[in-house]
Amino acid sequence: MTHPQPKDRLFRNSGLAIVLGAIMAGVAQLLLWLIAHITSLAFFGTIGKATSSPLGNHLGIAVVVVPVIGGLIVGLMARYGSPAIRGHGIPEAMEQVLENASRIPARMTWLKPLSAAISIGTGGPFGAEGPIIATGGASGSLLGQILPSSAAERKTLLAAGAAAGMAATFGSPLSALLLAVELLLFEFKARSIVPVALAVSVATAIRSAWMGSAPVFPMPPVTVPSWPAFLGLLFLALLAGGLAHGLSRAVYCVEDAFGRLPIHWMWWPAIGGIAVGVIGYFEPATLGVGYGNITANLAGAATWTAVLMLCLLKFISWSVALGSGTSGGTLAPLMTIGSGFGYVVGLALQGVIPALDAHLAALVGMACVFGGASQAILASSVFAYETTGQGAAVFPLLACCAVSFMVVRKLGRTSIMTEKIERRGVSVPSQFSADVFEHTCVEKVMEREVPSIPSTMPLEEFARRVADSDPSFGHRHSHPVVDDDGRLVGVITRGDLIRCAESAISTATVLDCATKRLFVTHPKDTLHDAIHKLLVNDVGRLPVVDPAEPSRLVGWLSRRAILSARWKVLDEERPGEGMRLPWQPPRRPEPRGDFVSP
Questions:
Q1: Measured on CA atoms in the order 272, 273, 275, 279, is the torsion positive or negative?
Q2: Contact (Cβ atoms closer than 8 angstroms) between residue 402 and residue 380
Q3: Alpha helix (H) ranges present in 324-435?
């Protein structure tokens, strides 16, 4: 049976990603449609007339009951359907990528969107994007499980579906691609970037055909900030980073508080619904998707006191609801709070920096809180540009999101996306770099002077020299065996020596006991390929031979030599001493981390 070459797999996966992009464009609209109809039924008692906002309902105090009913239904679905529908879905997708070869149960493709539609439609203070992203990831994973696929290919399809869901929701293909790279792929390779890029492009094209290409969050045009205004925005980014860290911690503190309740977690979403309903009674704008709140904050449509109160109440409602384990998203609430916070701080800073545009401050605040909380700085800054069309804001967004990221990293290691799964012992990669094994050739690290053993050497002599720790042997556990012409004919290990010694054949030679079925590598092979041979064939070393003369030994590749390539990378990351000036005394060498165990 022949297996497709890597380039054929890329074409195959790209074709599947295109299909996923088209499917997710429809799924996104279907979920938004379902949320709107459930909202109409729950808050207005109408069927067939869609509305995406509970604003204007006439339920009075009875509005408190609606989120409770929604939470009860979601709790039952989680209890008897799948507990994985709880939360906003992205951490769970990350966990499946890292721990379960990107396998998400098939039932999540319908349980997650249905539970989210019920939760949000009954007033849950979430955005629809989180469940759509989770549904897209589950769809891609399911497709990768149905068709013959490797774990890496399933990961690519999972990320393609998730990114296509985000692009179909906001019309933001580039930020969706970057979000997939930063939170799901954990790599930047053509094999994954190309399919995801095609998926988000198709999803965006279909969305544009249905809904147009206007920015999702229209706002007054902004201009390139002056230097004083730019410095003010950087100060805002510092504050936004602290806020992002505080929001993440608050959500998990609430979740821990629910964990101490003496009742089953199935009832927690209903209890959280009480807080959502009470807050929604006093401030109906906190209920539901709330994309209109983001637009209003960016446009500065309300007084600073009204914006601040909305953000505070939205935060309380969202953190309690999400901490209770109901089904919903995080991005829209983060952007609502961030844009409102940025607008209020921008107004305050205008007293010191009159040139600072409060609308631009709102946009920066939205991106910084989103990026700081999710630790996706590229996706957040590009998202703010794509969804508003403000080209003049690109460089302030990049700089401010970087500052917010650094603040959050200084205050804590985890993010709102990783805290939950890291508590379960899953280590999430925080940085991506070129694999040293993929760009280092064998000849760079192999031993060139390899003491070989003549094939005619008596086994007894070889055993004696090993026992006497012959200096020419060093501390090797294996040795190449060559014939009279210097050609490689085998490899003998200490294990081979022990097995032959047990048979007590006094006339045996080294060749009689050597392994003659050899696995070799070549000088120009990458260490990645060599490691693959070591693992697949369960050997600890590889003779390096000349490809033109397969029997001519030119080197020896051991595990120690392979690790030397990794050590070189680690050594390059050590801070240098810098240039010593003539009047400075010599620096004492820093310890290299060596220790002696007791």
A1: positive
A2: no
A3: 331-349, 358-374, 377-388, 394-411, 419-423
Can you list the positions of beta strands (E) in 361-467?
Answer: 453-454
- CA dihedral (476, 482, 484, 485) in degrees, to 10, reads -120
- In the structure encoding, which two tokens stand for residue 569, read together? 């990378």
Q: In angstroms, rounded to a whole number, what is the distance separating the alpha carbons of residues 138 and 131?
A: 10
List, in order, residues 6 or more apart from 280 with CB less than 8 Å away. 54, 63, 64, 67, 123, 286, 287, 317
Query: Any bridge partners for residue 509, and if so which?
Result: 458
Q: Are 6-211 and 227-423 in the same CATH fold?
A: yes
Q: How far is CA 92 from the centre of its chain?
A: 11
The contacts of residue 454 (CB under 8 Å, 6+ apart) are 481, 482, 483, 484, 510
User: Can you identify the CATH homologous superfamily of domain 6-211?
Assistant: Clc chloride channel (1.10.3080.10)
What is the three-class DSSP state of 81? coil
323 close to 254: Cβ distance less than 8 angstroms: yes
pLDDT at 417: 82
Q: Compute the distance between CA of residue 185 and CA of residue 188 in angstroms, rounded to an integer.
A: 8
Q: Which residue shows structure tokens 């070393």?
A: 541
Fold classification of 442-572 (topology level):
CBS-domain (3.10.580)
pLDDT score of 596: 46
The structural domains of the chain, with segments of one domain joined by +, span 6-211, 227-423, 442-572
CB hemisphere CA count around 494 (13 angstroms): 11
| Domain 227-423 part of CATH 3.40.50.150 | no
Tokens of 453: 């053993």
Q: What letters, b where the CB count within 10 A reaches 16 and e where it falls short, cover 503-515? A: eeeeebbbbbbbe
Check residue 590 and give left, alpha or beta (phi > 0: left; psi -120 to 50: alpha). Answer: beta
Residue 597 has pLDDT above 50, yes or no: no
Element (H, E) at 555: strand 549-558
Contacts for 2-11: CB closer than 8 Å, 24+ residues apart? 6/191, 9/153, 9/191, 10/190, 10/191, 10/194, 10/195
60-98 core/surface letters (b: 16 or more CB in 10 A; e: else): eeebbbbbbbbbbbbbebbeebeebbbbbbbbbbbbbbb
Q: How many CB atoms lie within 10 A of CB 297?
A: 30
Contact 481/489 with Cβ under 8 angstroms?
yes
Please give the model's pTM, rounded to 2 decimal places: 0.82
E runs forming strands in 71-140: none
Kindly report the average pLDDT of the chain as a whole number. Answer: 86
CA distance 365 to 344: 10
What does DSSP say about strands 478-482 and 541-546: parallel, antiparallel, or unpaired?
Answer: unpaired
Count the neighbouring beta carbons within 10 Å of the beta carbon of residue 531.
Answer: 16
Q: What is the CA radius of gyration of the chain?
A: 30
| pLDDT tens by residue, 558-579 | 888 888 888 777 776 666 565 6
237 SS3 class:
helix
Query: Which 3 state secondary structure label does DSSP give 482?
Result: strand
The single residue listed with the structure tokens 């769809």 is: 139
Structure tokens at 510: 């080294």
Closest CA to 198 of 25, 356, 44, 360: 25
pLDDT tens-place string over residues 437-496:
888 889 888 988 877 888 888 887 888 777 777 666 656 778 888 888 888 888 888 777
